[in-house]
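Blackboard transcription, Thursday session:
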Amino acid sequence: MTCHDGIIAIDAQGDTMVSKFPQDVISTNLSMTHPIGFSYDAAMNVRGASQLADKNLYLASAVTTSNITGVYNQVSRNSTLRIVDVLFQGTYITCMSCHDVHNDQNVTPDPGDNYNYLLWAKEEQSLICLSCHLK
Amino acid sequence: MLKLFLRLAVYFSFLPCAIAGNSPQTGVSGSLHDINNLAVTTGAYNPDVYQRVCVFCHSPHNAEFSSNNVASPLWNHAPSKVILAPYAWALPANQTISFNIDPLVGPSRLCMGCHDGVTAVDSHGGAGSLNSGSHPLTTPGYTVTNLKTIHPIGFLYSDAMAARPGRLTDPTTTSFLASSPFGAASAGSNTYTRVGYTQGTVLIASTLYAGYVTCATCHDVHNTNNAINLPDPDTGIAVNYFVRAPEQGSALCLSCHLM
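(Written on the board underneath:)
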């Protein structure tokens, strides 16, 4: 947030992100962003295993939709990372739970994508969402 | 033989239109609420450039905090601005039940972001908006333009219980019905014991928005825990209205109504 808060200058020239890339300012209000700073385990206790993936599962790599009533869509999890691996201290959801800031192990956008959100799982099929959310 | 042929013809004529994965309890991906899939398969809407599913309604960043001052779940869709008059009770005795100043209070207003027939289904994204479309939902039967022709929403269940003693189930102790006896005579039916019906696991109270009946009271939008219906004997297709209890035996209605 020392860059993405839209206030603190990114560079020595004093430009803030809000003046350069307004779409990249996360927010000055965490109510508008996916919750962070909470325990995945606590969320699991509230939502239950029918709504959130076990944190020892790997991140999603593909979804195969089901045609069979009552048989859930199959989420393939061929990532090299488990959910627990992207939780701070194995517990807390932070920015780093979705984003790989060093552009290192993040997924390659599929053809058609022209933007790199530095994500651990793809935007396609909302795989980054479905890594944790059983929807 | 001709009848069988016609029946098969009707059945197969549906298949190209059928959306893969729209069977109940298969998840949102591939269902009628997977708008990207709907856009790709029907051509009626602009698909998302990144082929995302959730983005038509939700965004992890820059979401709308509120819609008509109601806190929204990371909302990322153009808001419905329609103002509709509430349902009008048929019986004078029911006039004591009042509506919220906005009968579309809570999630109903969010649903109407597509189902009002005016707001573009493919209009999503706030800051850094990617590919907002301008195609409203116009399929007959899928839009709500007059709240007087649908089951009332936007009233407190507790108000209705007070006005209709003994006619509604207690939402704090009753779950949506999971199955019905399919017309079997229920002994002592005047006691409203509903013999043969079994309760599921979704407590009615858990589907109320601050006590209000909304769209989400009957409907499970994410196709995760909705009811499984029997196939239509003519088409072989089991309709999926994203409802929380089966149509068979009107289990959905009888979950709340003691009839």
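Lecturer's comment: Residues 168 and 257 of chain B are 5 Å apart (CA to CA).
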